[in-house]
Every structure is written in C-alpha cells, then in structure tokens.
Amino acid sequence: MQYVKIKDVIVEQIDAGMLAPRQKLPSERKLAESFNTTRVTLREALSLLEADGKIYREDRRGWFISPEPIRYDPTQTLNFTNMALAQNRVPKTELMMAKALLANKQASLLLGLKPFSDVYQIDRVRYLEDRPVVYVTNYVRPELFPNLLTFDLSQSLTDIYRDHFAVEYQTVRYRITTSSLLGHMAQALRATSGTPAMVVERINYNQQGELIDCGIEYWRHDAICIESLAKLTVAR
C-alpha cells in the first residue's frame, strides 16, 4: 500500500535526523507532488504518523515533527515545571481561568461533594518549548485553601499549598484514559478538533488523608510517555 511506504520513508528521515524535532513539513500539496501521489493517499500516511506520535498537526499551521515526549512517572511528586526542567525541557504555564463556582457533575464525583457545594475551578495550559501540550483543569476544595484565588496561579499549586497553607500531597490516585481534544481545549492546544489525547486524572490527598483537590490533564498524545518503575515483593 502506497501510504504505508510513504509513512516508512518519512519515519526513516526522522530516525536519520534529516527531519528535526518541531520542524514544519512542506504543505500537503508539495508533499503529494514529491511522492507522486494524491493528497488523499498522503493524508492516510500522515494520519498513521500522527497516530504513532511521529508528527503533530497545528490548526491552520500544518504538520510538524514531534519532539521526544516528556517522561511522566506517576510515582514521582514533581510538579510540571520541575519535571520538565529535570529533563532539560523549557516549561511555561498560562492561566486560562480561575473562579469560585458550584461544583459540576465531574467535580462532585471526583471530590465526593454534595450537590451545590462550592469549589474552585482553575484551568491552565502548559507549554514545552512554547508548544502547548496539555490543558489542565483543577477542582479545589475552597474551605481548605481560603483566598487561593488571590495567588499567582500560573505557579505550581503544589508549591502554593506547601508554602502558604502547610499542606502537602501525601497520596495521589491516578487514572489514565484516552480521549479526543474538542472545542476550547483543542483551540487552546492549537489542535484540530478530534485530535487524540491522553487523559491523566489525579485525585490528591493531604497528610491527614483528606481529599483536597483533583486534576484532569488533557495531553497531546505525542507529547507524553507514561513511565514508571515498580519494585515487587517476592512472596516466600
């Protein structure tokens, strides 16, 4: 099948270093001409490359070569900034929204809240090398963190909790699923609607075992690699 051969050629060029991370590919028209194929066949090859995490698409900008994904270890408590810096990446966080409101169904379910409970919702976009890679929504129990919305919420919540409220994460429960980027999330991540996403759901508990907040992270699927080390106890 021609589209598989086209995909293999582009993969070889990436692996050989002929195409650099974040490099923009030529237009679909020019690529189709260079491979002597139709744009329909070319798009099938590009779709395979996107599914494999080799390339990514930015809405109205075109296709780009994917950098190495960031390694995400659920057993580590590093915040996004420190995790990125430890891997020689350049992080940035943009605050999209922060307000107090009545908990929606998702917040109520994750935080175990009663109907019509108050909650803080904090939405942020995180970047690596100026590329938006993850849209994060945090729901926070306001009675545990009064005046939280007055802080600079482009900074780490982990650091704010520790430095200003003497609260630290003690236990974190993770749930990892797949989804698609739609609507405002796709727009914020410069993605086309329907782009694959990896969803990391975190429910966080403090030193006393209280459930204090939760986070839902919608990652560009090519930008993240879940990696961990488990130490097993051998039964005797």
UniProtKB/TrEMBL annotation:
One Pfam family this sequence matches: UTRA
Keywords, alphabetical: DNA-binding, Transcription, Transcription regulation
InterPro entries (UniProt xref): Bact_HTH_transcr_reg (IPR050679), Chorismate_lyase_/UTRA_dom_sf (IPR028978), Tscrpt_reg_HTH_GntR (IPR000524), Tscrpt_reg_PhnR (IPR017722), UTRA (IPR011663), WH-like_DNA-bd_sf (IPR036388), WH_DNA-bd_sf (IPR036390)
Domain HTH gntR-type: 1-68
Gene3D superfamilies: Chorismate lyase-like, Winged helix-like DNA-binding domain superfamily/Winged helix DNA-binding domain
GO BP term, pick one: negative regulation of DNA-templated transcription
Keyword Transcription annotated: yes
GO molecular function: DNA binding; DNA-binding transcription factor activity
PANTHER family hit by this protein: MANNOSYL-D-GLYCERATE TRANSPORT/METABOLISM SYSTEM REPRESSOR MNGR-RELATED, TRANSCRIPTIONAL REGULATOR OF 2-AMINOETHYLPHOSPHONATE DEGRADATION OPERONS-RELATED
NCBIfam families the record matches: phnR
Name of protein: Phosphonate utilization transcriptional regulator PhnR
Origin species: Vibrio anguillarum (Listonella anguillarum)
